Amino acid sequence: MEECELPLIDLSVLKNGDDDEARKLDCINAIAKASSGWGFFQVVNHGVSLELLSKMRNEQMKLFQAPFEKKASCGLLNNSYRWGTPTATCPKQFSWSEAFHIPLTKISDESSYGEFSSLREVMVEYAAAMQELAKLLAGVLVMNMGQPKELLEEICDENTCFLRLNRYPAFPISPEIFGLVPHTDSDFLTILHQDEVGGLQLMKDSKWVAVKPNKNALIVNIGDLFQAWSNDVYKSVEHKVMVNRKVERFSIAYFLCPSYESMIGSCKEPSVYKRFTFGEYRHQIQEDVKLIGHKVGLPRFRL
């Protein structure tokens, strides 16, 4: 399979208070161009320390090494453990993975960590760093469409966002099994920290391409809500994870989400999509998965 390197964007000019307006504009334009052309890009000098990323990875690996019964026990990390795909009716709907999908509001809850107490301090710091980075990037994308950069801060905060810790076990039987089935993300944007194993693939020019891992970069991708809000200027691109036959893979995703009551409308008229709340969108996705086994997403809301 063709391997690609995502657009690489240096955020130092935005993070360090640089007064060079030309460099700032170049950075903003690069983010907007990647968001509309690829729907994916990677960032360096993003303000999240490599030490913190390493500590988070080590804590994540310790967590997933625990016995299944302990991970699935009621109460651990807000009972957020997930494995496989309970709704799958055939192999192409099944994800060979396990994950903890944790609301940011529950991360500081000491009572839900049990013996994994060292994870709490690291995850609180990690979530705060990711939230700051997500707001910076979202602000850039909103401003690029001529809107005030604080627009999303009113509807996206720690009460609505999530962290997802992922593990994709090795699967020696077949190289064709999904670690995560093809999908688009249902949020505004996602920030992904992955290891060097590889496996992430995205749809580019009507074909699947493999994303080359970069240990120093974080991956950012546009979600459905930003595509709807931007009137299809920014693209929420289909992607998937393929498992490795010999080596397990780890990643951590931060999801920038609004409250379920938040109304999603276009930033300009005429709108491509009808207005909907995030709750309505999530409900439609769940109904589609129950009925036909996969997410339909934005086409359901196109005018």
UniProtKB/TrEMBL annotation:
Indicate the transmembrane segments per the record: none
Q: Supply the InterPro entries for this chain.
A: DIOX_N, IPNS-like_FE2OG_OXY, IPNS-like_sf, Iron_ascorbate_oxido_reductase, Oxoglu/Fe-dep_dioxygenase_dom
GO terms classed as biological process: coumarin biosynthetic process; gibberellin metabolic process; response to molecule of fungal origin
Q: Which domain of life does the UniProt lineage start with?
A: Eukaryota
> Which PROSITE patterns would you find in this protein's record?
FE2OG_OXY
Q: What keywords are annotated for this sequence in UniProt?
A: Dioxygenase, Iron, Metal-binding, Oxidoreductase
Gene Ontology molecular-function annotations: gibberellin 2-beta-dioxygenase activity; metal ion binding
Q: What is its EC number?
A: 1.14.11.13
Under Pfam families, the record lists: 2OG-FeII_Oxy (PF03171), DIOX_N (PF14226)
Q: Which residues form the Fe2OG dioxygenase domain?
A: 157-258
What reaction does this catalyse? gibberellin A1 + 2-oxoglutarate + O2 = gibberellin A8 + succinate + CO2
Q: What PANTHER family does the record point to? A: 2-OXOGLUTARATE (2OG) AND FE(II)-DEPENDENT OXYGENASE SUPERFAMILY PROTEIN-RELATED
As for family, the record states: Belongs to the iron/ascorbate-dependent oxidoreductase family. GA2OX subfamily.
- The protein in question is named gibberellin 2beta-dioxygenase
Q: What are the top taxonomic ranks of the organism?
A: Eukaryota, Viridiplantae, Streptophyta, Embryophyta, Tracheophyta
